[in-house]
Fold each of these.
Amino acid sequence: MTYVGIPEKLQSGKTRRLAFYLAAEEYLCRDSEPLFFIWNVTPTVIIGRNQILEKEVNTAYCREHNIDIIRRKSGGGAVYADMNNLMCSYICPQTSVNQAFCTYMDKMRNALKDMGLDVEKSDRNDLLLNGFKISGNAYYGHAGHSIIHGTMLFDTDIETMTCTLTPTKEKLQGKGVESVRSRVTNIKDFYKHGGLEDFKKHLRSTLCDATLELTEKDIEEIEKIEQGYYSNTYFLRKNPPFTDIRKKYIPGVGNIEAAIDVKQGRIASIVFSGDFFYSSIEDVKMLQEYLKGVDFCPKEIEKRLAGIQVQDIISNLQASILTRFITD
């Protein structure tokens, strides 16, 4: 198997964002030989293709702690990654899902066993160490190739992982796929040959016998693909339909409740109720209509609300507070 050498830093010295590596997987679906590469990212939550963001992720916590959120094109559950967690990518000419998983999981399990780690496969294509999950993996087909990518918990911040993947919803209904929560552990406590960099080198040398270095032209093409992952068209429209009921007491405003219906990443309808004071029921209905069709994300909602004086409709309610209430 061939290892793909990818520069981890931008010319500015900053660490690349996670979407770059997802784009790299797509770009590399042109080689006829199996490829493998390892990557690290700053704190990021990655949600599956068919998951409801608000049902899987504490978006308010992520925003407060500058944790990136990316939607991948494979299925499976939501995962958290940081600089002490390895992300692994395996690409090969397309086979069946089961065959691709079987080949990759066997290779990875044998490599870890070679390091003295007593690892076994689960029936959900996870890798378990002493019964605890250390690696979760997902699959998708692209351009005649199979892509498998997943986590490898080496010394990941488990506390932050728990906070990011625990949404604070009172009621949320939808057709999305929910994550299966599992007990996890870090490899660091069992690996006897050094730290993270030693583990990465060990894994690479065990799995790969050749290297493919990307050129500047390759990097430019990958960066073009990367931009698509940050577009509202992809990130939001892939959110399955859901209905959410949110309740909160806002000082100076009162108790407010919002019943929100979201379809294809946009607010299809929203209805406010509560014991707050308002100018007129007609104005409240106008506010509800004003929010219909807007992308379900803070930036777009705030932009839409900039056109009206929210505090003149619902007494003392600032547009910024309403935006956070709707999206958190």
Amino acid sequence: MPFIKSTFKPRIQFRNGFVSTVYSGLFRKVKLDQTRERIATRDADFLDLDWSFSEEKSNAVIILLHGLEGHAQRPYVTGTAKLFNNNGVDAVCVNFRGCSGEDNRFYSSYHSGATNDLDDVVNHCIEKKKYTKIYIKGISLGGNITLKYVGENRVLASQIKAAIAISVPLDLNGSATELHKLKNKAFAIRFRKHLLDKLRVKQKQFPEILKDVNLNSIKTLREFDEFYTSKAHGFEDAMDYYSKSSSLQFLKNIKIPTLVINALNDSFLSKSCYPLKEAKENENLYLETPNYGGHVGFIEKGDYYYNEKRALEFVNGLKKK
């Protein structure tokens, strides 16, 4: 599909990628009433879903997926939910396993390529909730899951009408390399702390597997993926996990309208996370690469961010075709 020329131009103070990333993560607030529902997964674990609804009864829903160590109350998720609710679409914000305030039941949890849980949510929306139109929007890690899901060799439900992915590490190894550079040291330390805190909670369930000596030896995000993420989810090592879970290789198979927005000043992304070739060769893939926005920091005046308004525009544009 033709490359989309971005119109996003934030105020001067938010043109710095670091500033927009930090401000969005620490200072943004979104007020949204949500109702929690717990569903069973196909492997007898559980997912906690946080719902919000449009004023009028709707046959459409947007499924929202958060990023690494996020949850369904993060403003970058609830902002989209609120905007879509105000425009006649229900929203379900998914908490990945272990991210809802309660640890999941198994040693495994969630990772960048875990698409079966998303499929369970889609099926729940169709079979139990009877939605006839489903949109999926993922942020960062959730964006990688979204793109991998719609590009995998699986039969997508006809109710899935579109996908949107924001600030996506399409090449997980490339993104991991960027996160380990000095420019991202503060972010890497924060991510590692949160991930290790989660493992220490899980240690209470699995003390024989998760020993203090192992956890204390993890100094980087890549070492975390080497020790836990890869082994807990059936991969040989971190590189095997990155290779098989990166969504970049699945883009060529996408058959529904899909929008990807990756800012050029996103310090988390490598050059390989900007799929110009794949977008040109797939008529269903729409790629927008604004100069600004950092990592999920597309700040504009008003209640909603640029990427949220673009998601709604993208969905509404499909209705007119």
Amino acid sequence: MALPTDTQKLVDSPALERALAVASARHKHLCPRQVLGARCAIAATTILDLEVPRSDKRLLVIVETDGCFVDGVEAVTGVSVGGRTLRVEDYGKIAATFVDVKTELALRVAPQIDVRTRARDYAPEQTRRYFAMLHGYQRMPDDELLSFQWVNLSTPVAAIISRASARAICNKCGEEIINEREVEGDREVLCRSCAGEGYY
């Protein structure tokens, strides 16, 4: 699927203002990464033609870091870890993939590589780099601020979402495993930790 050629038209100032008010309330201030999260989310959901914020499970977002960027994404989209519509794959990158669960279209959005430098052009009144980014990111057209890439998920959407009722018991530690996250060996079912894939 082709991306729109004129992404400058996709900037939605009222939506951005609403999202930044929500995101900044969580921190008692606004930061550049919250702006980037909100801008990524507004642009992606506009391209995917999905109304936001959502209260259903039509939109799945996979973010590639944690922190303030995610707050901006959440403020626009309404996705959440608790609602199983937000996943964190911590690659340490300011980027997110927005997935239309119905069509399975997946759009990855990230800042352009040189946005920190170019932000100054859009906030010339700011002498400090931090504030130049904070204000510049709000003013830059999408095509100068963001990069867009259609992607294919390595794990199918259905497997990511799974079934809420799915349960298994690890044959080694005895703990329950939900959401079909068990690892099946030759003769046993294991949780990821017991299968050697744990984070601890």
